[in-house]
Amino acid sequence: xxxxxxxxxxxxxxxxxxxxxxxxxxxxxxxxxxxxxxxxxxxxxxxxxxxxxxxxxxxxxxxxxxxxxxxxxxxxxxxxxxxxxxxxxxxxxxxxxxxxxxxxxxxxxxxxxxxxxxxxxxxxxxxxxxxxxxxxxxxxxxxxxxxxxxxxxxxxxxxxxxxxxxxxxxxxxxxxxxxxxxxxxxxxxxxxxxxxxxxxxxxxxxxxxxxxxxxxxxxxxxxxxxxxxxxxxxxxxxxxxxxxxxxxxxxxxxxxxxxxxxxxxxxxxxxx
Length: 272
What we know:
alpha/beta; 9 strands
């Protein structure tokens, strides 16, 4: 049973309009025991039609979260996190942020490939699905290799880009990318970093979370044990989405527990 949601965004992220307190209140209604807010920070995100900047007012975010932590301390555990959108040259810049604030949990994610978000239709129009996904995984590998100075705990939604492919995951085959995915996972394991299972893929109609079951199974079979769980909700009604299915998927992949982080230290929570 999954009793915490550790990938959440409020209006402190530029792609959400939800007040942070509304997310806390929904978590209490859902009987979650803990949540971790992971507001977006994507340095050098390019200009876009929606005017999203993915920059973060750190002090206001911390002040609001800590006040809500105290207000709701008898009802839920509220953890302080961040999602950093990596590019291979940004490690030092993100390290300064990580060192400056007492985050409980840091997710590193890849949202950009050569300065383009796969969310934008032009990405797959230019590259096609196979090449686009190959470029996406290559960007993750570069980030893992070049941002070793950053103290993050998990890499988020490892196949994020497939959400936005023309036919979504209809033509995605794990075997097509096995070599590079295994290389990514082996490096993360050697660095004692985990991966996230993100239920948004189920909400997007992929039939699986992000990443795909085959990637989760590969991580497990390679010896990976650190798995965080998040809904990636940007509004209260999407919190803890399909967590019952996520628990079943993790059990089928061989996992017995998932991981919650406090002060960036892992705590295992049984799935059964």
